[in-house]
């Protein structure tokens, strides 16, 4: 039998390197820890310089409170921090760092030097990570500079896992971007190989900071929101569904100033976007959530990305309700900063044409009152039917008035900005869906009796579901009874849906009910069932509409929440303004 191995205490260097495996994954991890220390020190200006993607050099300089000479050596030792002193501090921690692991962990896998000066000192002091002696004096302004060279020089296996210089810098750049979004009051400068990547001032405000880092296009297609309930508060920008992404690469969620990636938060936000986003698309957002620090545990993982809410359901429902209500406020045709109409794809990509100094101004700008009245006159002459007269451009409805129907699929309308194209099925589907949700929430969907009962052949499972969930079906506006092992009898259908194929509608509804199973599951998936019913009942392609019907649909869109998208997240309408039309025909060149 082999001899039992002896248990021995690990040396401090090895302990630090093991801890570094959790804290220091790549150069971006180092920058995160150092910049968080700067922010905790109250820095108003942070400068970051890197070389070779951060592998050769990372230098972070700040103008924070600095470190006293007598504390400098202690700052490089494990589990030493100025941010907490007891368990009570840990339970309501508000600083970004608190473990006292970052600097010793970094120093164990790289060549580290720390220079700092506090306001009480007349000059700065410097110490290196491998130096056990006293700090040496050095010229330095109030603040701290941390220099990290040759990352993983003493752990070749870890260094082999690093990617190319550009890939590592991309990760580092994204990390600095996330930190800069968290504190608009601090200026950030990032340089790579002495080239300035960005320089952000600390006095420009939150909106300018988000625009600088996420792009003006995001700001143009985002809703500024703010929601409060008791001690919970959330504010920021949520992208309109038209700005959805193929990847979840523009999602920034800050909890008490700390960027977190939490499953509960992600689920709440996905659920809020559920019926306005196309399948496989991801929302974009920059959100700042604050709650009492004792209500959340950030001491879950050394990287501090994960958190644990003490009342998770409360936080989930608050975030869901806040974002869902903000999105519900968007209606087709709204303008201004609250909600912007979607633009045609090619107009988003087109660059403005440069105008020569001698060229005349474009023939059309924003239509004035005379042009609107000319449109109304042309409408009357073309269709022999009067259009409701607008006294001014401002009186014209946001989506304007219908001009024609194209291929039985699209409605063409003219508004004060130019041409509007509407997918009539998608628009009608959203209108029916929202009406059914409202009706169900109030007293249930009103039923409409059929002239004669309709017998429908279904599967045995579907017939059993009709019998078992009769109360739910009544609430949805159906009256269905079982007439045989595989037959049901329909006596009433939802009045909101108008003239529909009752047999096909019931088959679809019963199929959804069988799919979702239990009553609790049905309650959770009720919106999907309503969405399927609305899709089935919405006006179909190739159906010819009169001008009155088209205009009625446009007015309903303007009055319906979330009417910019259908239930599946597809756009219901696009706007081609006069500038885009003039560009297509090269007018004004």
**How much helix, percentage-wise, in residues?**
25-40%
How would a textbook summarize the main sheet? 8 strands, mixed
**Gap from first CA to last CA:** 93 Å
Instruction: Briefly note the structural class of the backbone.
Output: alpha+beta
| Assembly classification | single chain
Our Rg estimate from Cα atoms comes to: 31 Å
Can you describe what's shown?
The protein is an alpha+beta fold and 589 residues long. It folds into three domains: 12-202, Heat Shock Protein 90; 215-328, Ribosomal Protein S5, domain 2; 403-589, Ribosomal Protein S8, Chain: A, domain 1. Helices cover 37% and strands 22% of the residues. It contains 21 helices and 22 strands. It has an eight-stranded mixed β-sheet with strand order 5-4-3-6-2-1-7-8, covered by helices on one side. A hairpin with a 3-residue loop joins strand 16 and strand 17 (410-415). The chain is elongated. 35% of the residues are buried. Mean pLDDT is 83; it is low at 335-384.
């Amino acid at each position: 039998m082999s001899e039992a191995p002896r248990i021995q205490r690990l040396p401090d260097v090895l302990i630090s390197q093991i801890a570094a495996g959790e804290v220091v994954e790549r150069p971006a991890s180092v920058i995160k820890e150092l910049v968080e220390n700067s922010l905790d020190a109250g820095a108003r200006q942070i400068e970051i310089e890197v070389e070779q993607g951060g592998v050769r050099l990372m230098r972070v300089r700040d103008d924070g409170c600095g470190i006293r000479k007598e504390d400098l050596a202690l700052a490089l030792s494990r589990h030493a921090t100025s941010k907490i002193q007891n368990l009570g501090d840990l339970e309501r921690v508000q600083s970004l760092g608190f473990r006292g692991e970052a600097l010793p962990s970094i120093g164990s896998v790289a060549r580290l030097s720390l220079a700092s000066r506090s306001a009480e000192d007349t000059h700065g002091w410097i110490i290196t990570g491998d130096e056990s002696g006293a700090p040496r004096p050095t010229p330095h302004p109030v603040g701290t500079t941390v220099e990290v060279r040759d990352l993983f020089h003493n752990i070749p296996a870890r260094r082999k896992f690093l990617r190319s210089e550009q890939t590592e810098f991309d990760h580092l750049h994204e990390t600095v971007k996330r930190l800069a979004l968290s504190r608009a009051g601090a200026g950030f400068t990032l340089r790579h190989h002495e080239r300035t990547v960005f320089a952000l001032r600390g006095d420009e405000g939150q909106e300018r900071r988000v625009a600088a880092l996420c792009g003006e296009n995001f700001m143009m297609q985002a809703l500024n929101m703010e929601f409060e309930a008791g001690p919970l508060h959330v504010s920021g920008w949520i992208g309109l569904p038209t700005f959805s992404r193929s990847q979840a690469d523009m999602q920034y969620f800050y909890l008490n100033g700390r960027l977190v990636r939490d499953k509960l938060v992600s689920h709440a936000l996905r659920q809020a976007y559920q019926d306005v986003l196309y399948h496989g698309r991801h929302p974009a957002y920059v959100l700042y959530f604050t709650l009492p620090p004792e209500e959340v545990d950030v001491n879950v993982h050394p990287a501090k990305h994960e958190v644990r809410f003490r009342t998770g359901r409360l936080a989930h429902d608050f975030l869901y309700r806040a974002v869902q209500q903000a999105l519900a406020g968007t209606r087709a045709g709204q303008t201004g900063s609250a909600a912007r109409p979607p633009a045609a794809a090619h107009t988003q990509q087109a660059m403005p044409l440069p105008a020569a100094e001698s060229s005349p101004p474009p023939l059309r700008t924003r239509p004035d009152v005379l042009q609107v009245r000319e449109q109304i006159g042309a409408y009357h002459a073309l269709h022999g039917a009067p259009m409701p007269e607008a006294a001014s451009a401002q009186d014209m409805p946001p989506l304007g008035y219908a001009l024609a129907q194209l291929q039985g699929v699209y409605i063409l309308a003219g508004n004060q900005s130019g041409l509007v194209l509407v997918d009539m099925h998608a628009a009608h589907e959203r209108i029916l869906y929202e009406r059914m949700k409202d009706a169900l929430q109030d007293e249930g969907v009103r039923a409409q009796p059929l002239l004669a009962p309709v017998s429908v052949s279904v599967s045995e499972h579907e017939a059993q579901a009709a019998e078992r969930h009769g109360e739910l079906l009544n609430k949805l506006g159906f009256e269905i009874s079982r007439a045989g092992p595989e037959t049901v009898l329909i006596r009433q259908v939802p009045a909101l849906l108008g003239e529909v194929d009752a047999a096909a509608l019931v088959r679809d509804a019963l199929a959804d009910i069988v799919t979702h199973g239990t009553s609790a599951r049905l309650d959770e998936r009720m919106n999907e069932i309503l969405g399927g019913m609305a899709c089935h009942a919405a006006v179909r392609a190739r159906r010819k509409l009169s001008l009155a019907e088209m205009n009625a649909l446009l007015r309903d869109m303007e009055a319906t929440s979330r009417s910019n998208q259908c239930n599946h997240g597809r756009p219901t309408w696009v706007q081609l303004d006069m500038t885009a039309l003039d560009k297509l025909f090269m007018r004004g060149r």
